[in-house]
Design goal:
Layout (H helix, E strand, L loop, with lengths): L2 E8 L3 E8 L2 E4 L3 E2 L2 H18 L3 E6 L7 H9 L3 E3 L3 H10 L7 H15 L9 H31 L6 H30 L2 H10 L10 H15 L5 H8 L3 E6 L3 E7 L5 H14 L5 H11 L4 H22 L15
Parallel strand pairs: 1-5, 5-6
Antiparallel strand pairs: 1-2, 2-3, 2-4, 7-8
Helix pairs in contact: 5-6, 5-8, 7-8, 9-12, 10-12, 11-12
Length: about 350
């Protein structure tokens, strides 16, 4: 099947597209990031398809602060295949192909060629109820961050002599407003989950995993839905760990180079932090996660590395629970971890 690969480098107001097919290439002029520009792109795509008898269209576009979503949804409605590769993967691939220049035009060409030569995995939208939940969780994270910043400012300024009453009152008002907004959003999240029985049941099952609690279970639930969309329920847990960025990255060469292995740090930084905190809380209980952690520490593993390994276990166990629609069963864990 002949495929037309379309690489798009997108910004807030415009985008540049490049075509790649059967070893041929074409660069389009900049178009507005609006329905007008989308229509122009579609017209060019249909022309190339008809001229060269290309059956499939595969759009490759990097996630860019949400600016890409309107174009992605438009192309999805046309029946096009969509890939949203990690920008770091694309940059590393481009360097390997000796592409050093970085302009909007060059980036579009690189994305089209990247698609043609690597055939990246296809993207699919999340179920609407999960997508809405993700947006609310992101907003909650924003509010929590703003609240922490204002409280830190309040703590710093409290001991400063001569602080004007206007500054003090302003801080108190902003903190109060943020606290109220956060409480209302948390209630809306709770209502949203309660209105969707499947989400409610999935969250209930995930809470059986050691380390997962009410503060982080919904974040993990969204993650697992994303992984399901990417790889289906047959996706491997090892791939999920890499997707989160908790996979180890060894650095060894010959007999003399043996640097300390680090994690890849790919994916969502906020989620990795939450998983690390989940592991930190989970090992304080009498459960298989603590047994796993203590076994690693007993073998000489640094405590931080053991905590990261525990975070990986939480991800693996959570995926098994989500995939099999069952509660976590400690009896199925390796006998070495039994309490």
């Amino acid at each position: 099947m002949s495929t037309l690969y379309v690489g798009c480098d997108i910004a807030k107001d415009s985008f540049v597209a490049a075509f790649q097919w059967n070893g041929q290439q074409q660069l389009l002029p900049s178009m507005p990031n609006s329905p007008v520009g989308f229509g122009s792109l579609l017209q060019s795509i249909r022309h190339i398809q008809l001229l060269h008898n290309l059956e499939t269209v595969h759009l490759i576009i990097e996630p860019t602060a949400g600016y890409e979503l309107a174009l992605v949804n438009f192309c999805l409605a046309q029946g096009f295949q969509i890939s949203l590769p990690n920008p770091l993967h694309v940059r590393e691939w481009a360097r390997g192909m000796r592409r050093r220049a970085k302009t909007d035009r060059q980036d579009a060409i690189v994305l089209a060629r990247f698609g043609a030569e690597t055939n990246p995995p296809l993207w699919q939208p999340l179920p609407s109820e999960v997508a809405e939940l993700e947006q609310m969780l992101r907003r909650k994270e924003d509010l929590e961050q703003m609240l922490r910043q204002e409280r830190n400012r309040q703590g710093t300024l409290r001991e400063r002599p001569g602080l004007p009453e206007a500054v003090k009152s302003s801080l108190e008002r902003v903190i109060g407003a943020l606290e109220q907004e956060l409480a209302e959003l948390e209630q809306q999240i709770k209502q949203h989950v309660g209105q969707h029985s499947e989400l409610q049941e999935q969250a209930r099952l995930l809470l059986s995993v050691p380390g997962l609690g009410v503060k982080n279970v919904l974040w993990v639930l969204v993650l697992l839905h994303r992984w399901k969309v990417l790889g289906g329920c047959g996706g491997e847990s090892k791939g999920l760990v890499a997707y989160v960025g908790l996979d180890p990255k060894p650095h060894e060469s010959g007999s003399s180079v043996h640097k300390r292995a680090l994690i890849s740090r790919m994916g969502n930084r906020v989620l990795r932090r939450r998983l690390f905190l989940s592991a930190l809380g989970g090992i304080r209980g009498q459960n298989v996660l603590r047994a796993f952690y203590m076994r690693l520490v007993g073998r000489g593993k640094p405590k931080k590395a053991a905590l990261i390994a525990a975070a990986r276990k939480i991800v693996v166990w959570a995926w098994a629970v989500f995939r099999d629609h069952t509660c976590f069963d400690p009896a199925k864990v390796s006998p070495k971890l039994a309490l």
